[in-house]
Every structure is written in C-alpha cells, then in structure tokens.
Amino acid sequence: xxxxxxxxxxxxxxxxxxxxxxxxxxxxxxxxxxxxxxxxxxxxxxxxxxxxxxxxxxxxxxxxxxxxxxxxxxxxxxxxxxxxxxxxxxxxxxxxxxxxxxxxxxxxxxxxxxxxxxxxxxxxxxxxxxxxxxxxxxxxxxxxxxxxxxxxxxxxxxxxxxxxxxxxxxxxxxxxxxxxxxxxxxxxxxxxxxxxxxxxxxxxxxxxxxxxxxxxxxxxxxxxxxxxxxxxxxxxxxxxxxxxxxxxxxxxxxxxxxxxxxxxxxxxxxxxxxxxxxxxxxxxxxxxxxxxxxxxxxxxxxxxxxxxxxxxxxxxxxxxxxxxxxxxxxxxxxxxxxxxxxxxxxxxxxxxxxxxxxxxxxxxxxxxxxxxxxxxxxxxxxxxxxxxxxxxxxxxxxxxxxxxxxxxxxxxxxxxxxxxxxxxxxxxxxxxxxxxxxxxxx
Length: 442
Hints:
Keywords: Glycoprotein, Glycosyltransferase, Membrane, Transferase, Transmembrane, Transmembrane helix. One of its GO terms (cellular component) is membrane. The chain is α/β, with parallel strands linked by helices. It folds into two domains: 3-224, no CATH class; 256-437, Rossmann fold (3-Layer(aba) Sandwich). The chain is 33% helix and 19% strand. The protein has helices at residues 51-56, 69-76, 94-97, 100-116, 152-160, 169-179, 200-203, 208-213, 217-221, 234-243, 248-251, 273-285, 304-321, 335-344, 382-389, 426-437, and strands at 3-8, 11-20, 23-27, 64-67, 80-90, 135-137, 165-167, 189-198, 289-293, 324-328, 347-351, 369-373, 393-398, 401-404. The strands form two sheets. Strands 1, 2, 3, 4, 5, 6, 7 and 8 form an eight-stranded mixed beta sheet that branches. Helix 13 (304-321) links the parallel strand 9 (289-293) and strand 10 (324-328). The model is unreliable at 263-267 (pLDDT under 50).
C-alpha cells in the first residue's frame, strides 16, 4: 500500500509510490482519504497565465491515478523493482528550474522545508536525523535545462548533497518505456521507497500561493510551522558554507545568539520588546558588514548618479561607524568568494534581482536585514517573502521612502520596473541602515 506521509498543495511526501509507463500509481483501497490528485500533481507543461494553458496543466490518468491493491496485483504482479532511499521529484518545466532564485529559494527551499518538518529536533548546528535524498528527478527538464547561466544551481546541489544522483526527462522517459504494457501480464513498475513531490501548478491551486504571496514555497512553509525546527534551514546553509571554505567562526555567527534571542520570526510577527532589546545589544557587540550588490547591464539598474551618491553615503556611514562596506559586482568574484561574503553579511542591499538570492546564506542574527530597491510604485514578493521565511527583516525602498512588513505595498510591476532608471536616495538609505543597526527600528 502507498502511505501518505504529509501533504500541502503542491507538496506531498509518499511512501511506496509506484511508477509505470510514466504515470505515478497510488495503491490504496481508500482513495477518499487522499487529497485530490490535482492538488498533488499536474501535467508539468510550461506555465502561462491563460485559461487554455491552465487547462492543459490539469492532470490526467497518464500523470497519476489511484488503484486498489487487487488492481496493482493484476497490473504488475511480481514485476516490481524497488527504488531505494529518498527521491526528490520536481514536476516543473525547465522554465522555472533554470533560474537560481526559483531553483534554490523556491523549489529546494520548499523541498527541504517540507521534508525537514519530519525532524523537529534539527539544532542550531544543523544536525539532523533525516536521510539525505538519494536522487533528484526532473521528469520535464532536458539534460541541461536545470542548470542556470551563473552555474550556481549546480554549485548548490552538489555542495549540499554531494552523493545525490540526477535524473532528467530522458531518464524518466526511459523508465516509462521500460515499464509500459506490451500485452497482458507484461506491465512492470518501479516502486519508490519515499518520494517528496513538488509541483508548481498544484501549489497555485492552494490558497496561499496565488492569493497572498505568489511563492509556491509558502504552501510548504506555512502548514509546517508547528512541526519544523526554527533551525530547519541550517543543514543546507552550513553545507554550502563549508563547501565554500567559510571559516567555522563565521558559520557559527548565529550560534552566539541562539540562547539570548528568541526572535527567529515566523515571518509575520512584529518583534517583541525583548527581541528589540537584544537587537540593540547586538549592535554593540556584532561586527557589522554592509554588502551592496550592484547590478550590471541595462536591465533593472539604478540611475548612474544615484548609484554614485549611494556609494558615497554608504562609505561615509561606514567610515564614521567603522563598519565594513562591500560594493559587490558578483561577476568579478568566484562562487566561493560570493558565498564567503554573504556568510559574513549583516545587511544586504541592492535592486530587485537574482543577486539578492545570496541572502539565503546570511547568518540569522538579531540584525540580519535585506534592503531591496524598487522603482517607486513597484514591488515583488520574491526576496521579501524569502527574507521573512528565514527570520530576517526586509525593507522595500522607493527612492527616499521605505516599507516593511506588515505594511509592505501590494505586488506591482509598473512601467520602468525592468528599466535602467531606478532612483535611489543615498542619504535616506544610509539613514535607514544606521537606524536599523542602532536599534531605532525593529
């Protein structure tokens, strides 16, 4: 029998699920006890926001079906081959997988959040009793589609799970062809010990993702609050930092505050008085590292004069406070160097874009902050939601005005959102940073 271990829209953990002819088979005599198939999976086709395309992503029997134990015996008999260990299966098209943010801060963060909720005892050192996944499967991605142009996807996956094997569309189709029926008594099946299934289209059929934050990971994150350790991300973060040769004392920056600070926020709470007081203590005791991620190219960049004024304001602030300032052009650093810097960063700022994904490697301390610059009137939830999910404070900036949760603006992509004339008032941003570190802001 197939066992349902855990489910949320777009995220499901099964034990003993079968695959034959490309379809997944849930063997159960009580299908009414299970979630609707459309809440677990889809056809995995490319996603577009049109009624016609949405209809093509509704699953059919060729994607997943329920069968009874008797039907399974009739279909497969003893022609079943076990696939041992834990399998992460990402049922998304390459459209999303080949982007560093979507790959790490959506898919993998969701996979790990959902899976790690099975171990509520993960500690501040990232120690866990969970079995590492044996394989990652992308049934709808060609061999190179999961790789991003910066090659951080590969870096991440092999740093966190160095023994993991990879299967893509060609491998999945090969398994499907090997198991398909060629007449009575010939159909075979692979039986997977445990599958952690992620499906973007199914996540968008939930309540949180489409209605509140547009983050598929939220469907995995929200319902697992009670089961999850507040250090759930530490096994992943620490693996990447060790791979990047980050010094142990830097990796352990958050350990210094684990006992003093009860403020690993659930992403929605206003900080308590105790958290604010500990934050003020942190500002006196912690080394402060400001990292300004500069976007290159003509897409989504700052007005040249405003960038120069921001650098001047940040330089003056950090010189007067004796704080460390890093003006970063990521393409000029190695991957190890980028991770090493993120691991030491107190406040990361920059224009909305892929470079801010490195916030996932920052230490979780009372001062950890992300400042994201938008064209006035524009706002996207990507890095705002990710920051809060990890327990960090996020500020959205429109030139000389800032917003933070729970009073952030609604999602909007106005004209100029992707342009190269985004304004930023350097003195106001520098003042925001000073107020945050000095404890005048939560």
